[in-house]
């Protein structure tokens, strides 16, 4: 029996104000990795020059962005370079020390085995250790995760906003890299794009580490943008999967459910307000005529969600 050669693994590390942690992150990357792509995303502290001067790891390839593109833009530049260099699996690790590089073999294993196209870290797998996560961050991640499940279609992911990922080169080649969001929406936009390809995404258990790193993310600044982009991606995904690419019973359940729900709410609200101003009790028949469409509409919407949850991609698209 002929054994296949081990795949070439590349690690992409976007760098922006991570000077205090980056050398330790690089030092922990094991020999299974062939190349390390450091992307200096116009870092004000000069991460690229700092690494060049203080790190002698021969696997390092420095890439400098002329202007700041955000984490997504930095990762995409790393993807392009890794694919050009012939890397078969590309892992993305942050440079702030929150992600353990020793877990890289765990992230690439499902892809090597042909069980996944893309893997993501799951910080919620060990319920005891998530207590180390700050409460505000825990709540924020839980809320974003729920919204991301709805917009991306990957209902079986428990931590879809996690940035520790690995991807097969064949999947990268299929992605519209120029259309993917460049900044903080990158991880969730990637899931939407992967779903349009019907790529298989798998969770990998990991522990979250929190030290003295400073987050550049301001929730108040991006909340409106995130909600808009999630709504946009949800609409596109539903149109692509249920009307453009394929038709199913769910294609009828969703619009019919929404139509009946809206009719019941509007009809009931109109007659309740009219009765209130007239000082009369709303007739039982009117109440039933407004309640029934609401109940049936909700049932149709729940049936659609059940179908959507069962339709999570199961067959990897990359060639094993």
Q: Tell me the major beta sheet.
A: 7 strands, mixed
What is the ordering of alpha helices and beta strands?
Answer: EHEHEHEHEHEHHEHHH
Number of alpha- plus pi-helical segments: 10
CATH fold-level name of the largest domain: Spore Coat Polysaccharide Biosynthesis Protein SpsA, Chain A
Distance between the termini: 17 Å
Overview of this structure, please?
- The protein is α/β, with parallel strands linked by helices and 320 residues long.
- The chain folds into 2 domains: 9-242, Spore Coat Polysaccharide Biosynthesis Protein SpsA, Chain A (Alpha-Beta Complex), CATH 3.90.550; 247-310.
- The chain is built from 10 helices and 7 strands.
- It has helices at 22-27, 47-54, 70-84, 104-112, 135-152, 169-174, 186-197, 219-244, 249-278, 284-310; strands at residues 9-15, 35-40, 60-64, 89-92, 118-122, 165-168, 201-205.
- Strands 3-2-1-4-6-5-7 form a 7-stranded mixed beta sheet, with helices on both faces.
- Strand 2, helix 2 and strand 3 form a beta-alpha-beta unit.
- Helix 7 packs parallel to helix 8.
- The radius of gyration is 24 Å and the shape is elongated.
List the helices and strands and how they pair.
Layout: E1 9-15, H1 22-27, E2 35-40, H2 47-54, E3 60-64, H3 70-84, E4 89-92, H4 104-112, E5 118-122, H5 135-152, E6 165-168, H6 169-174, H7 186-197, E7 201-205, H8 219-244, H9 249-278, H10 284-310
Parallel strand pairs: 1-2, 1-4, 2-3, 5-7
Antiparallel strand pairs: 4-6, 5-6
